Amino acid sequence: MNDTLSSFPKLVLLRQSVREYRPDPIPRKRMDRCLEAARLAPSANNGQPWEFVVAADQTVRKKLVKAARFGLLKENPFAAEAPVMVAVIETPGHRPTRWGGYLLGRNFPLMDLGMAVENFCLQAAAEGLGTCILGLFVAGEVRRALKLPLSRRPRLLITVGWPAVEEVRIKKRRLIGEMSRYIEGKGIINAS
Ligand SMILES: Cc1cc2nc3c(=O)[nH]c(=O)nc-3n(C[C@H](O)[C@H](O)[C@H](O)COP(=O)(O)O)c2cc1C
């Protein structure tokens, strides 16, 4: 992967789920920059209802890996290869925003966490690091591994490490015409 990418569209293409890792450790400064990118993410009412726990300790990391071997199929076997596992925890944040969202039928904290996680993963890609977001895991096991109180909810895990394979895959996505539409009008002109 290219270490010196500068343009955002290239970075978006570069970020992909990495499921093969080299065992080498991750420099602290690179991880700090990923956390800084997550820190700067937007959130409803600036509530920032997140905590990122970076498990570099092998005992804790292995417990998180076990939590991610989900269900009968024992999903996410590759998680064991990554030198670091990050747990993304939902915190109470700004309570009026949370309850306001629930009244509107919207889960703001989950939206907020998604944005912070994407910022984290994009920065990781810019650092030459691979990530894979994991939603399949046993939350209770993560809770026990990190000794979380009930007010803290494990929402996602992220494997982080050096990609073992350099290839950047073509993204399989719906076409832009299938996922968006214009209501034509004066707000858009045909110019670049
Ligand atoms: C909320 C969420 C949960 C995910 N959970 C898993 C998971 O448990 N295991 C896994 O291998 N990939 C998981 N992924 C990765 C997706 O499969 C992946 O992002 C998607 O297929 C697109 O591929 P790409 O990330 O390489 O662009 C998850 C992604 C998101 C956003």
Description:
There is one protein chain. The chain is of the alpha+beta class and 192 residues long. It has a single domain (8-164), classed as NADH Oxidase. 36% of the residues lie in helices and 16% in strands. Strands 1, 2, 3, 4 and 5 form a 5-stranded antiparallel sheet that branches. α2 packs antiparallel against α5 and α3 (58-68) packs antiparallel against α6 (139-146). The chain is globular, with a radius of gyration of 18 Å. The protein binds flavin mononucleotide (FMN). The site of flavin mononucleotide has 10 residues, from β4.
Brief synopsis:
The protein is α+β, with helices and mostly antiparallel strands. Helix content is about 35%, strand content about 15%. Helix 2 (about 30-40) runs antiparallel to helix 5 (about 110-125) and helix 3 (about 60-70) packs antiparallel against helix 6.
